[in-house]
Amino acid sequence: MSLLLFVQAVPAAPAQTGKWFTAPAVAAAVITSILTIGGIVLKDYLLKLLEERRSEEKAQSAIYERYSHPLVSSAVSLMNRLHEILYQQHRPVYLLGEGLSTGSSPGSIYRSYKKLSTIYRLAAMLGWIRACRREFSYLRVADIGKAGGIHRAIDDFENSLADGNWVEWQRITRLCDLWLLCKPGDLRKTPDTSALAAQVDNLIWNCLENENVEDVSLLPDSAKRALCRTVADCLSSHLRTNEVAEASMQRSWPDAFAIIGMREAWIYRDWQSGIGDMMIRPTETEERRFEVIGFGDFEHLALNSNEQQPLSLNRLFELFDNLNLSIEDRFDARPTQLKSVATATARLILEIDKIQGKQSIVSENSRERADEILRKLDSQK
Q1: Alpha-carbon distance 239 to 172, whole Å?
Q2: What radius of gyration do the chain's Cα atoms show?
Q3: Which residues span the membrane (predicted)?
Q4: Residue 289 CB partners (closer than 8 Å, separation 6+)
């Protein structure tokens, strides 16, 4: 038999392609390997990541737990004082003066105490907020989780002290009404009014720099009148309307300047941080890293301020100096600002109360006072 015939006679071997995938033993080995690798990944990475996240959330919750009591206590104290000066029938005469009274009579001493106490309550609140933020700086928290409401409430509180955009808008609205530059309500339909408001604000700051004074009240009359003309030209140009006539300007510039020079005392966020740093001290207790100084230490600081502290103290005093709450002062933005602070404080208290639930440390009286402040806000809208 030839070799060729022999080869043809040998039966072909069965195909092996893909057979090892279907073999039960091999398939079981592959599945076991995959499960083993998956278990290692789950154990060494995913579970570790989950554990780290839980650990960070626990650390964050622990910070709020440690600071919730002093934060609520400080917020309630500030809310009660703001309610007293803003909404009660008797208006606080102790805020009418500049600085602290140096008189030795019982009335002078009491008024100085009340004013300094009011300033301390705001400063202490900023101190506890700053302490919380500095504690959080030690954490790597990507998701604020359940504490998100408190974070937002604190942001609103800081914003109530720092944001004066509504004053810029009110200023240009009242000036347009005074000079009859547009019909009432038409200004809101005008494009880029926010940019216009900011432009007018910058004109005021430029005037102060050119005259080398810190406040518009210190400008000479010639500069006041020139500023009114500059602002009027800016408004008429933006609104594409007639310029304010010279006779009208001569007659109206004192009223216009009163609007331009509306008193403001914004405490910007970095300033708030500076005040907070001034108010806190490191503590060696295990409960918290920081504590806020007491009223006695603050009083000593206010009465014996050195070169390192006066700016922070001055910014606090400017918010309350010569503050007349017995009238609706159209040329002072601070009463409205303080109402915003009171509202933000009330919301922060209620947010902490909601998160703590049955374990809440907010008293029923404080809860009712906070609700009352929010109702007053709604009634004024």
Answers
A1: 11
A2: 33
A3: 25-46
A4: 131, 134, 135, 282, 283
